[in-house]
Amino acid sequence: MNTETLVKKLEKEISNFQPDVDVTEYGIVQAIGDGIARVSGLSQCKASEMIEFQNGTIGVALNLEEDTVGIIVLGDYLSVKEGDTAKRTGKILSIPVGDAIIGRVVNPLAKAIDGKGDIATDTEQLIERVAPGVMTREPVSVPMQTGIKVIDALVPVGRGQRELIIGDRQTGKTALAIDTIINQKGQNMKCVYVAIGQKKSKVMRVVQKLEEAGAMDYTTVVLAGASDPSSLQYIAPYAGVAIAEYFLDKGEDVLVIYDDLTKHAAAYREISLLLRRPPGREAYPGDVFYLHSRLLERACRLNNENGGGSITALPVIETQGGDVSAYIPTNVISITDGQIFLEAGLFNKGIRPAINVGLSVSRVGGSAQAKAMKKTAGPMKLGLAQYRELESFAQFGSDLDPQTKKTLDHGAKSVELLKQKQYSPIIMSKQVASIYALNNGLLDSVKKEEVQKWEEGFYSFLDASKSSLLDGIASGWTDDVQSELQQAIKEFNDTFNA
Amino acid sequence: MVDSRTLARTVLELATKPDADERIKKFIEYLEKNNLRGLLPQVIAHVERITKQSAESNVLRIRSKFELSEADIQHIQTLTGAESAHIEQHIDESVIGGFSATYKGFLYDGSLDNQLTQFKNVLTK
Q1: CB within 8 A of B122, min separation 6: which ones?
Q2: Cβ A50 vs Cβ A92: under 8 Å
Q3: ipTM reported for the complex surpasses 0.85
Q4: What is the average pLDDT across A25-32?
Q5: Does the pLDDT value for residue A498 go beyond 90?
Q6: Is B122 on the interface with A (CB under 8 A)?
């Protein structure tokens, strides 16, 4: 477009432009403190409506009272003063979203905070949206491969499922979540990682790791750090799911990780107390269950008439001293479709990921598991249960019968095989191959200490000479595939033992 | 349980009736009968606040860079529906052009700044 055309277009726009007087309802800030403003006036204000303060800061109306409106300030509340005006915007809290948000680190208002410039967005998405109804949904039937053997084999997660990651601090909860994101590469899945109340340095390390693994190509990070106001921490998971819903509406599959909801509940408690809502158990407000249930209900798998997309949710909960019976953990356990329980004791013993297989469950993931994995993982689950039972008794006596010794040896090898390094997800067919070897006694000749070495070698062997077999395992679990796999394991064992 | 705010609103409503004295007397009797006389100081405080608020709400405050003519003010009064309101005019250097007015909790922004924002929105849409 040349200058002349541009000038003509501008002239046309100016001549067509009819300025209008803007009419907005306004109120006066009566009190402000700790990120909460009380504003008089605004008699027509709606719940969750965005309010603009005199200095341009945005707030959200949470408490609609007789004379005042309780507003949480989303951002710099220190420059909002008593006596300032606060205008209604008429808009319910929403964030700008678009395809360009992928690969970016944003705050809960979807503003870029990664220094890579503004994000070009094409639509606005409501932060609070009613979860899809029953008739628009479909049962979970497609697996969401995490690339972590112990999860994919024993606690499988399906697309559209809500699986809780729960455990004490420093047990590897975030590591599990990050590994899962890394494994989504090439699996046609968008990822949203929501960091709530975390140290920004820790989140930046996570982003760096995701960039190194090439996972930022399909991931958005929503960050409400520990230094951000609790109002931003409160809306962060809703902003995350709003971004996910943008892609869901386009029929895509999305994985959302909320890291973590314990801090989210604490932020909401802070806001509620400042808003003078009545405190309940542990000073949490009465609607703290609804806080998380309405968030996690938005995870779904839609039927084909409604686009066929899905939102898989992996909320994270931090426990204190392994106590899963505390208020927030029990709430979230009851909302989700299962939990992955991480134990500090296992972590310290060197069993990583430190997943307690006995306490971890997946209520719907089984139906989404690939046939090969389902058939292979079944016996392993049983073997591990027997091992756990015998393990404690074995500590007291040395005279054990051969059958018990065999069970213990098999169990110990299972535990060894399920160990996995961080940032090294494994494809499903390789997982099946190694578990098949264990179940069928093909690891009997391998010492417990050498299981991991065997595993590494076996995967390299499969990559180098049996890639068609891996494809075969992924596409079906026929007798031919099984006998070919058995043959391959024997072939590898010969070289390994030699 | 009836609260002081509701009582204040009731008494203001009663004061608008033709036989206001009689009704307010009955209101006091009601308070005594129901052991609510102790709420009277709070009721009076609410009455004062509500009266002040309603008096303030009938003021049309206009901000502009220069003093406006009678015709301009009348035009703004018609625009805002504040024909019978008390007018307060403020000279505000930050308003580059046009005006901004407040009346009964609504902000009428006819400033140049707002018009430029509107034009920007048209161009960038």
Answers
A1: A13, A17
A2: yes
A3: no
A4: 92
A5: no
A6: yes
The pTM (predicted TM-score) of the whole model is: 0.87
CA distance B107 to chain A (A): 5
The residue to which tokens 């307690």 are assigned: A356
Query: Which of A67, A92, A88 lies closest to B109, judged by CA?
Result: A88
Residues A379-409 pLDDT 10s = 888 888 888 888 877 777 667 788 888 888 8
E-only strand ranges, A127-233: 164-167, 189-196, 219-224
Question: A343 CA to chain B: closest CA distance, Å?
Answer: 52
Contacting residues of A for B123, CB less than 8 Å apart: 13
- Out of A205-209, A286-290, B48-52, which region has the weakest mean confidence (pLDDT)? B48-52
Report the C-alpha gap between B46 and B13 in whole angstroms.
13
Tokens at A282, concatenated: 């542990």
Taking the C-alpha atoms of residue B33 and residue B22, their distance in angstroms, rounded to an integer, is 17
- Residue closest to A94 by CA, chosen among A114, A76, A74, A78: A74
A123 at B interface, C-beta within 8 A: no
Q: Is the peptide bond before A260 cis (omega within 30 degrees of 0)?
A: yes
Q: Residue range A289-314: average pLDDT?
A: 97
**B114 contacts A25? CB cut-off 8 A:** no
User: Up-side HSE of residue A319: CA atoms within 13 Å toward CB?
Assistant: 26
Give the tens place of pLDDT for each residue, A100-109.
999 999 999 9
Among all residues of chain B, which has the CA nearest to that of A11? B123
Nearest residue, CB atoms, B118 vs list A19, A25, A26: A19
In the three-class reduction of DSSP (H, G, I as helix; E, B as strand; rest coil), residue A93 is classed as coil
Cα-based distances in Å from A31 to A26, A83, A118, A174, A470: 15, 8, 33, 39, 66
Residue B85 CA to residue B55 CA, distance in Å, equals: 10
Q: What chain A residue is nearest to B111 in terms of C-alpha separation?
A: A21
Nearest to A22 among B5, B114, B123 (CB): B114
Cβ contact, residue pair A19, B5, below 8 Å: no
Q: A254 near A238, Cβ under 8 Å?
A: no
Of A431, A417, A416, residue with least CA distance to A485: A431
d(CA B112, CA A275): 37
Would you tell me which residues 14-53 of chain B have a C-beta closer than 8 angstroms to some C-beta of chain A?
none
Taking alpha carbons only, the member of A172, A145, A141 closest to residue A156 is A145
Which tokens hold the place of A133? 């109804």
Distance (Å, whole) CA A438 – CA A446 = 10
Residue among A6, A9, A22 with most chain B CBs within 10 A, to mutate: A22
Are the Cβ atoms of A25 and B107 closer than 8 angstroms?
Answer: yes
Looking at residue A143, the DSSP 8-state letter turns out to be B
